[in-house]
């Protein structure tokens, strides 16, 4: 599992969306475990995990089972995307041009960019509230700006620094959340800790979906953080280190949120419940979570910037973006998010979760198409030069098979959706459980495989040009 790496890798990242050449590859696969474990010990997954008992009224046991099932299933998709990074050496979103065409990929890239910006804005709100909770004299708006600047510095420095911080964070945050669990279980303040809530199939399915969608939300950028690993890294090693890190870290955070809410009186805000439930170590937990938010939020800013660069480079194909371009775009996005977050409503995070659920409806078919194309059709062999050509090279401007499967993949989810904008008839019939993501995956995957394999012109394109990076 250990890889050979360049020991003199610069701290400030010089690449953006371009191919990472062999001489610039560095790192070890174990870095992926610490990145996704440490990155998931944070307030946002804690708040999301609490919804299983707050909103869907499960008890502790069934809430934990639903959380584990969702992360175990969704983590497979997330880790399969991660394993593409060392083989391709390019960011996830620009790789989508090989499936959808140079122009056909624009919609997915735009949606992913909006989602990153939403995540970033939500997390700086959490950072502002956490900092205010630690130091009362710091107003929430000031805390928001401080949190955003901290994430901005990390994101601008880039890939290597992000990994370094999460290696440290894994040990510190891992110890902190174990300490927090220990304190809560020995200081439960409610008589109905184990009996509040009950099993209900709609709530259980909804909680499974929340956990699975949490993992799928990483899919558009997870391979961005494995693309610097040497191409010789086994796919299995990349998959398992990512999978174990993300499933363990996110499951702990989701369960921690559920436990904290059940250990405190009904109706409390999740992070207030965490502060109350952890008692004397509450301030320490808030400090750890604050540092976690700032560190992990750098990934959202980094992903947003790469998406914007990908969109611009589609039309300005002669442009060679540099580290300076990445820094300037980071500051622009940071300033815009601070402005929006400071003036946001009190229920900003709730609105954000609603937005992500809507966006994931259109990202799920992309996940299916991307994975089927990479593992079953191309088997990891792509012409990197064509991906960066304005006309898409051998992949063209549009891939009709991918676009048709994508549209159908969205359409079949509609009856199963449960979002603030629309509740499908089937979801309504099963008391609001959202199974759209599962239906989207099960329909889109075989459909795209069938469409791609029956198209003789597409097959000819696959056999044309210099294909590299075989898995």
Brief overview, please?
By secondary structure, this protein is mainly α.
What is the topological layout?
Elements: H1 30-38, H2 43-54, H3 60-82, H4 84-88, H5 92-95, H6 97-100, H7 106-134, H8 140-157, H9 159-186, H10 201-216, H11 235-262, H12 270-277, H13 282-315, H14 323-342, H15 348-377, H16 384-387, H17 400-411, H18 425-429, H19 436-454, H20 456-462
Helix pairs in contact: 1-9, 1-11, 2-10, 2-11, 3-10, 3-11, 7-8, 7-13, 7-14, 7-15, 8-13, 8-14, 9-11, 9-13, 12-13, 13-14, 15-17, 15-19, 17-19
Family: Belongs to the purine-cytosine permease (2.A.39) family.
Keywords: Membrane, Transmembrane, Transmembrane helix, Transport
InterPro entries: Pur-cyt_permease, Pur-cyt_permease_Fcy2/21/22
Could you characterize what this model shows?
The protein is mainly α and 471 residues long. It has a single domain, classed as Hydantoin permease (Orthogonal Bundle). It is built from 20 helices and no strands. Helix 7 crosses helix 8 (140-157) and helix 12 packs antiparallel against helix 13. Belongs to the purine-cytosine permease (2.A.39) family.
